[in-house]
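Hi there, hope your week has been kind to you so far. Please have a think about how the structure follows from the sequence. I've dropped the whole record in just underneath, so have a look:

_____
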Amino acid sequence: MNDIWKLPAFKITELFKKKEISAVEICNETIKHIENTNPKINAIVIDTFNEAKNTALSLDKKLNNKENLGQLAGVPVTVKVNTDQIGYASTNGLRIQKDLIAKKDSPVVNNLKKSDTLIVGKTNTPAFSIHWFTRNSLHGHTLNPHNKNITPGGSSGGAAAATASGMGAIGHGTDIAGSIRYPAYACGIHGLRPSLGRVPMINYTTPDRHIGGQIMAVSGPLARSIKDLELGLKAMSIEDYDDPWWVPIPFTFEKPQKKLALITEIKGLKIDPIIKDELKNVAKHLEDIGWIIEEPDAPDFQEAAKFQAALWLGEFRRTGGGSHKKRK
């Protein structure tokens, strides 16, 4: 089947499970597309083609033997290069970590494997995964697949660019302060920052993070459709108690009250009148269909930012301290 890279994840796994396309065919077509596309944008910086090919062979056998298949069986996905995957370097965009080879999969990668995905590559990130663009001295510069003069965002810019250009139907990203959401916006796709505890995620190649990193950093999906975003989140969220923050949060809740807070003024920030008008227009439409709109004062974001900066600066100063032993 030509142009399989254009299909959403839910359609790819549906076709595979109906035996309308084999996992080997999906894998080979995806690799061909990556080889044609990636040199132009540098989104995937480490390919995992051999592993993907072996997984594809295994999936075709499982399907023929009528074995149970994961929820994303046969779907090509990518993993951010700051995340442990057995046999590959967790570089985080750093030369000093170019040989930091993972001997154990992080929980989120393990969950993607349990879901029978085809992991086709590791995607780029800025050094330390802390910038709003995606460039580093080890892997180079990732470009936006729509326009090379526009940033793909960061830090999950490689994941967003790869997903937007069809090199993976779902991309794995990480997010502290917008590192999934901003690249998704910059590349014209969808990105979800899950709540703390939803997706299990730790790295075994590095010491435990300090408390700020633990309570702020999460893993989540990027995709070209909302349905794929949901599938990716559910696949990534399989239980793993190696992450002590993980909790069995349900995916369905009672319908909430139709009540929203509208904020158009934030202390210390100048908000463009166009943005204010759009917010008010949306609020009016929602009010017309039965929503209750309230306009409370905004929280003091300046005070929160001050404490957050103190927390992170203190933690950066302690990064690499010898008091934390690596997991075995």
